[in-house]
Amino acid sequence: MTTPAEARVDLGAIRHNVALLKERAGGAQLMGAVKADAYGHGLLPTSEAVLGAGASRLGTAFIQEALYLRAGGVSAPILAWLITPGEPIAEALAADVELSASHPALLDEIAAAARATGRAAKLHLEADTGMSRGGAPQAAWPDLLAKALELKAEGAIEIVGIWSHFACADIPGHPSVARQLETYETALKLAEQAGAAGSEVIRHISNSAAVVTLPEARFDMVRTGIAMYGLSPVPELGDFGLRPAMTLVARVGLVKRVVEGSGVSYGHLYTTSCETTLALVPLGYADGVLRHATGRAEVLAGGRRRLVAGRVCMDQFMIDMGDDPISAGDEVVLFGPGDGGEPTAQEWADTLGTITHEIVTRIGARVPRIYHQ
Ligand SMILES: *Cc1c(COP(=O)(O)O)cnc(C)c1O
């Protein structure tokens, strides 16, 4: 390790998780959700591992992420599902990126780009089945279908998929789940009746949580994110045999003895209770170690768990080693699979009142990702 810190990514774990999820998905295709730099794991190497392990497609939020994959040589189908007006749609079509549309105005914009480039846009129509985020709400669904069929007849678009997204699939038994599934089935039926959902159209609604809790919601494809990275989509139900792929490690930058009563870091929120050894860990909130971890989160250092002592700074935080030995250059593990006694990303998430998605996606750009097979 030649940098202050690194995120080690176990591609073998990602492949194991994808294979396990494919099995769970029965015969359905698997789309790997690789938005946000593959949840912080690194877009290209992770995407290649995901495709190599049996995913047939990739999903990103933004067009730019999909274009980055294409520039990196990825040829598998890619869907970008969050499109805002004025984005480089023609460029996306030229790169064979599939797009999602929730509104007739966006269909018009996409169709204009298709006419200009002479390439039919491959579209996934999104139904809002109860999350009230993306997607056309029930009342607007027939108009979206009508517009799509008009543009399809003209040759400007192809309808590749009809999809939706669950709001509460990670809360087993939540009443909205069954309602969303029913609403999705209604949206599909309307699409079939209108002639917009032939047998070639891919139906997809499940995220990771739905894959492990709702086999009836698989349809033709599932879209998995967090579980591919080895983090449980429903932590209270266990780990489902998934293996965490990321280990976040830093090298101690400085070790020193300080006297009893030493105030540590900004605000002196921690004061040493006796003469002790402090170690400086070179990762801070700019790297995704949330300031909120101050005095709460633990790391593994010198074979034992240590609390973050005092304020997390932009680039660093301190730990109190007591009289235990540690040297500058020694490794400190913030989180990993937990095999060596280190905390897991799940523990960090629980401690900080968030979800593992946020813990891993926040690891900053200056932390190099190092890949292991
Ligand atoms: C992020 C995302 C997913 C994957 O969600 P996970 O909970 O990480 O499996 C699937 N579909 C859409 C639309 C998403 O935004």
UniProtKB/TrEMBL annotation:
Which keywords fit this entry according to its UniProt record? Isomerase, Pyridoxal phosphate
Family annotation (InterPro entries)? Ala_racemase (IPR000821), Ala_racemase/Decarboxylase_C (IPR009006), Ala_racemase_C (IPR011079), Ala_racemase_N (IPR001608), Ala_racemase_pyridoxalP-BS (IPR020622), PLP-binding_barrel (IPR029066)
Q: Which reaction does it catalyse?
A: L-alanine = D-alanine
Pfam families the record matches: Ala_racemase_C (PF00842), Ala_racemase_N (PF01168)
Domain spans labelled Alanine racemase C-terminal: 245-372
Enumerate the SUPFAM superfamilies for this protein.
Alanine racemase C-terminal domain-like, PLP-binding barrel
Organism superkingdom: Bacteria
Give the modified residues of type N6-(pyridoxal phosphate)lysine: K35
What does UniProt give as the signal peptide span?
none
PANTHER family membership = ALANINE RACEMASE, ALANINE RACEMASE, CATABOLIC-RELATED
Q: What does this protein do?
A: Catalyzes the interconversion of L-alanine and D-alanine. May also act on other amino acids.
Q: What is this protein called?
A: Alanine racemase
